[in-house]
Amino acid sequence: DAFEPGSTFKAFVVASALDQRLISEQTEFDWEKGRWIVGRNVIHDTHPHGTLTPQGILQVSSNICAAKIGQKIGKAKLAEVFESWGFGDRYGLGLPSEAKGSLPYPRSEIALATQSFGQGLTASAVQLTAAYGALANGGVLMRPYLISKVVDADGVVLLENKPAAIRRVVSEKSARAVVSMLETVVEEGGTAPRARLEEYRVAGKTGTAQKADPVARGYSDKRIASFIGMAPAENPR
Known about the structure:
Layout: E1 2-3, H1 10-19, E2 29-30, E3 35-38, E4 41-44, E5 51-52, H2 54-60, H3 63-73, H4 75-84, H5 109-116, E6 123-124, H6 125-136, E7 140-142, E8 149-151, E9 157-160, E10 165-168, H7 172-183, E11 203-213, E12 218-230
Antiparallel strand pairs: 1-6, 2-5, 3-4, 7-10, 8-9, 11-12
């Protein structure tokens, strides 16, 4: 099924902006004291941060600063960015009702801002896993599959799936830089310290998305909380 992924999407925005050289790892963004006006809307951050680099944006999950990176990418390019990471289309897993998700074109400035932190669009858990797999895999998106192989009673292989690359989404340098940033998410000061392991280095990202209310045609006070990660961060498996 598809759902609004929330802040787990910020990693793709940062990685793509780095890859397009729109930002560097040292670029600083103003937190705007937690309140940033976009058109007739206001975007909020919950905790004070001051200025943030891309690493800090991911570590503390700043909506405002992620939206500012989205502005640098632009409306048309942002839509292309998300498609390149595998969103908005089915993988053909063979399961009934596989969701392809929804990637509406961000026509307004507020849509551009909210999509930059994973609201106003939908994705499936399989799509998210494949996209984070691309970060783990040095920037190459692989085709996900559920069945390794089917063998009949005589041992004849009837069907076999093997790893297959779909495309390179970002450079290996950009992918590794973002994975390194995501390691700070599970450290002290990050949003997921309980995901830290003693035996392995972990990289990951939290998401807290507002649930849409189809009756009231807006967002309810309910949330979808999520975490997606990889380990060992230096050589993910």
